[in-house]
C-alpha cells in the first residue's frame, strides 16, 4: 500500500523572527513574507498545520488586544486559519517570533478545517492515520482564576476529541501554558499553586481515559499572561504499536513523583496534590518515518532538582538528560531497533531570565549548531530551575 507524506507523520518545525516592522502585526506579516520567500521550494502555505506566535506584552489587557489583532492579521494571510496560539513568552528578540509545524506534500483531500460554535480544529485523514490538531484555552479575563480556566480548556479539547471519535488517550503531544506557573494564591487561608491546580485538573479530566499507550509527551511551562492555553496533537492509527512511550534512564516518570516534590492545592477536595501526567517522550512509528516528541526536560535527576546550579550547568545537564532519553541503548530497551540513531531536528529552549540566554545558547550550539532552535523567556515549573528544553527528533 502506498503511503502519503501525511501517513509518514513528516512533521517539520520552522521558526522565524521579523526583519522589519514596527507594530506586532507588521512584524508578523514580515515573518509570513520570509516563509513565502525562503520556503517556497519546500513548503506551501497550505502545508502549515499549526502556528505558535510568541510575544512580549506588559499586562493581560494588552495581551488580549494583541491576541485579537494578531489573529485578525493571521486570518488575512491564510485561506483557512490553522490552529494558532498566541503565547505571552518574550522571544529572544524581545518582541515577536513565530514557529510553524508543517507537513510537506499534504494533499487537500487529506485535510479539513472543522468548527462547532467557537471551537475550531484541524483534521488530517489518510490511509491508516487520523490526526487532530487543536488549541484549547480558558477565559483569559483578569477576573478568571487558574482552576476555572484549566477546567474550561480541558473541556474544550475533550469536546473536540469526542467529536472526532477520540479521547485524551489519543493525544501524542501536548503543550500546557500556565500563567504565572509558580504563583501561589490563598484560598480560605490556605495556599494553592497555579501549576499544582493545573495538574490536579488534568488528573481529574484524564481519569476516564485508558492511556494504554502511556500519557502524552508534554510540556508544562509558564507564561506571563493569558490564563491557560493547551495545544495538542492527537492521532489514531490502524496499526498496533504505532505509539510507544519512552521512559528516561535518569529521571523518574513524572506521574510517579512522590508528594514531597509537589506543591499545595487547597482549591480541590476530590483531586489534590496529584502528579503531572506526561511521558518523557513519545515515539510515533509509521512505515516510513519514526517521529520522537521530546517532552519539556530540565536539570532533574530522579525526581530532584539539582540545587544552585548556574544556567550553563543546568543547560548541560538538561541536554544530557535528553541524549540519554533518546540514546540507542534506551530506545532498544523499549523495543525500538533497526535504525542508526535518533537525530534531533528541532529544539525550543525556555530560559527563566533574559540575561541567561547568551550563556544557554552557547551551550546549546555546542551540541546542536545545525538545527532550528527557538529561545523564549518563561518561568519553569520549579523555582530553582532556570532552563527547560523540549524538541523533536527522528530515527534515521
How does this model look, in words?
The chain contains 7 helices and 21 strands. By secondary structure, it is α+β, with helices and mostly antiparallel strands. The protein has a 7-stranded mixed beta sheet with strand order 4-20-19-21-16-15-14. Strands 6-7-8-13-9-12 form a 6-stranded mixed beta sheet. Strands 1-5-2-3 form a 4-stranded mixed beta sheet. α1 runs parallel beside α2.
Sketch the major β-sheet: 7 strands, mixed
CATH topology: 60s Ribosomal Protein L30, Chain: A
In total, how many beta strands? 21
**SSE arrangement, N to C:** EHEHEEEEEEHEEEHEEEEEEEHHEHEE
- First-last Cα distance: 22 Å
What is the CATH architecture annotation?
A: 2-Layer Sandwich
Mean pLDDT: 93
Count of the separate structural domains: 1
Care to give the gist of this entry?
With 396 residues, this protein is α+β, with helices and mostly antiparallel strands. Helices cover 24% and strands 33% of the residues.
Amino acid at each position: 500500500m502506498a503511503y502519503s507524506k501525511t501517513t509518514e507523520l513528516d512533521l517539520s518545525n520552522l521558526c522565524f523572527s521579523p526583519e522589519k516592522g514596527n507594530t506586532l502585526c507588521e512584524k508578523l506579516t514580515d515573518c509570513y513574507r520570509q516563509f513565502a520567500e525562503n520556503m517556497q521550494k519546500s513548503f506551501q502555505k497550505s502545508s502549515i498545520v499549526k502556528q505558535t506566535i510568541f510575544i512580549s506584552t506588559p499586562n493581560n489587557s494588552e495581551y488580549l488586544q494583541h491576541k485579537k489583532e494578531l489573529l485578525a492579521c493571521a486570518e488575512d494571510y491564510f485561506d483557512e486559519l490553522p490552529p494558532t496560539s498566541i503565547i505571552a513568552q518574550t522571544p529572544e528578540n524581545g518582541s515577536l517570533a513565530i514557529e510553524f509545524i508543517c507537513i510537506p506534500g499534504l494533499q487537500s483531500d487529506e485535510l479539513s478545517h472543522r468548527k462547532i460554535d467557537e471551537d475550531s480544529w484541524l483534521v488530517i485523514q489518510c490511509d491508516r492515520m487520523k490526526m487532530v490538531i487543536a488549541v484549547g484555552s480558558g477565559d483569559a479575563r483578569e477576573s478568571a482564576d487558574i482552576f476555572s480556566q484549566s477546567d474550561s480548556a480541558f473541556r474544550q479539547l475533550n469536546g473536540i476529541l469526542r467529536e472526532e471519535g477520540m479521547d485524551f488517550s489519543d493525544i501524542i503531544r501536548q503543550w500546557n501554558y500556565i500563567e504565572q506557573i509558580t504563583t501561589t494564591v490563598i484560598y480560605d487561608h490556605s495556599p494553592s499553586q497555579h501549576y499544582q491546580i493545573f495538574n490536579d485538573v488534568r488528573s481529574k479530566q484524564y481519569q476516564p481515559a485508558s492511556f494504554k499507550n502511556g500519557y502524552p509527551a508534554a510540556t508544562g511551562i509558564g507564561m506571563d499572561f493569558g490564563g491557560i492555553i493547551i495545544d495538542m496533537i492527537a492521532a489514531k492509527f490502524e496499526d498496533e504499536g504505532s505509539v510507544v512511550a519512552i521512559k528516561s534512564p535518569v529521571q523518574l516518570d513524572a506521574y510517579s513523583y512522590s508528594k514531597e516534590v509537589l506543591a499545595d492545592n487547597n482549591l480541590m477536595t476530590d483531586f489534590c496534590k496529584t502528579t503531572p501526567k506526561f511521558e518523557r517522550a513519545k515515539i510515533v512509528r509509521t512505515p516510513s518515518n519514526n517521529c520522537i516528541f521530546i517532552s519539556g526536560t530540565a536539570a532533574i535527576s530522579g525526581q530532584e532538582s539539582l540545587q544552585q546550579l548556574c544556567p550553563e550547568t543546568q543547560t548541560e545537564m538538561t541536554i544530557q538528560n535528553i541524549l540519554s532519553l533518546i540514546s540507542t541503548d534506551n530506545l532498544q530497551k523499549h523495543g525500538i531497533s533497526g535504525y542508526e540513531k535518533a537525530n534531533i531536528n528541532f529544539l525550543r529552549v525556555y530560559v527563566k531570565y533574559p540575561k541567561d540566554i547568551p550563556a544557554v545558547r552557547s551551550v546549546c550550539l555546542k551540541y546542536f549548531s545545525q538545527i532550528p532552535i527557538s529561545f523564549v523567556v518563561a518561568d519553569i515549573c520549579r523555582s530553582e530551575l532556570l532552563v527547560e528544553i523540549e524538541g523533536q527528533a527522528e530515527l534515521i
